[in-house]
Amino acid sequence: MKFSQPQTLQQIATLLKVEFVGSADYAVTGINEIHVVEKGDIVFVDHPKYYDQALNSAATTILINKKVACPEGKSLLISDDPFRDFNTITKHFNPFIAAKASIADSATIGENTVIQPNVFIGNNVRIGKNCRIHANVSIYDNCRIGDDVTIHANTVIGSDAFYYKNRPSGYDQLISGGSVLIEDEVHLGASCTIDRGVSGNTHIKKGTKIDNQVHIGHDTVIGKKCLIAAQTGIAGCNIIEDEVTIWGQVGMTSGISIEKGTIVMAQSGVTKSLSKGIYYGTPAIQHKQKLREVIYLKNIVGNQKK
Predict the structure, then answer these.
(1) Which of 40, 34, 31 is nearest to 1 (CA)?
(2) Exactly one of 134, 187, 218, 287 is catalytic; which is it?
(3) N or C end: fewer C-beta atoms under 10 angstroms in the chain?
(4) Name one GO biological process term (predicted).
(5) CA-CA distance, 137 to 149, in Å (whole number)?
């Protein structure tokens, strides 16, 4: 999430009421999670296991819960609760703005785009030309939709990321300050749900077709010309490369990648990154290997019955 204008380290420290290490006029341009962080960004870390990863990342400023040696060219914000303070930054620079109309005045809708009844389009949404948005679709604030996109009834684009910290008092939500970017010629079926990024974008690239009742988690990137069949659930922070086919009821854990041209058969459970191939089963393995296992087990059972 980029700020509308750069801030100084001093300004952010004052907002959070925390101590800082580094030059007071150090430029801070946004906040991001570790996997998408860029120069100028703040990244937060609150567990010693990830200190080195955060300190050595591309982030310019590290929001951290311990005084440590500051790497050259970087700065620190010392907080007793980085998770809380990361939320404070998100709420300050990207506050929730209640809707005043079904289609916000600040939304931009391209020529020849058809909006069916009962559609909600939030603040600062941009929709391209020649799109068809069917009844009861909800498109949350700041989402971007390309040209020639079809979105079927009851689909929700831009809902919050499923990201929580377990505290003694209950689960504390990490506030979503990112968005959803959908490129040209994408088709979304009925009742799909696409979560916004926590700090970046959930991204669906050109020409991908998605069936009914598919869920796509926060910050996931889906490549060009992918096919995703009904009732598939894709967790957050995944990278699905171009021309991947995912059949119905596939479940996918977070933080993995699937190589271009891969096929995942129906009802598979994907628990790790996949190189190009055809996969089936839970955990998903190469289709031919799975068939050999099934035949082997069938023969064992058959021999036991004799």
Answers:
(1) 31
(2) 218
(3) C
(4) lipid A biosynthetic process
(5) 13
Q: Is 218 a catalytic residue?
A: yes
- Which is nearest to 256 in space by CA: 231, 237, 281? 237
The letter for the amino acid at 82 is: P
Residue type, 268: S
CA dihedral angle for residue 99, residue 101, residue 102, residue 107, rounded to 10 degrees: -80
Q: What is the mean pLDDT of the chain?
A: 94
Structure tokens that stand for 252 in this block: 């996918």
Q: Is the pTM of this model over 0.90?
A: yes
| Integer Cα distance of 220 and 70 in angstroms | 31
Q: Is the pLDDT of residue 306 over 60?
A: no
Torsion of CA 14, 15, 16, 20, to 10 degrees: -30
Pairing of the two strands 233-234 and 251-252:
parallel
What digits encode the pLDDT tens for the residues 45-79?
999 999 999 999 999 999 999 999 999 999 999 99
Angle of helix 82-93 relative to helix 9-16, nearest 10 degrees, comes to 110
d(CA 228, CA 67): 46
Q: Is the peptide bond before 283 cis (omega within 30 degrees of 0)?
A: yes
Residue with tokens 């008092």: 169
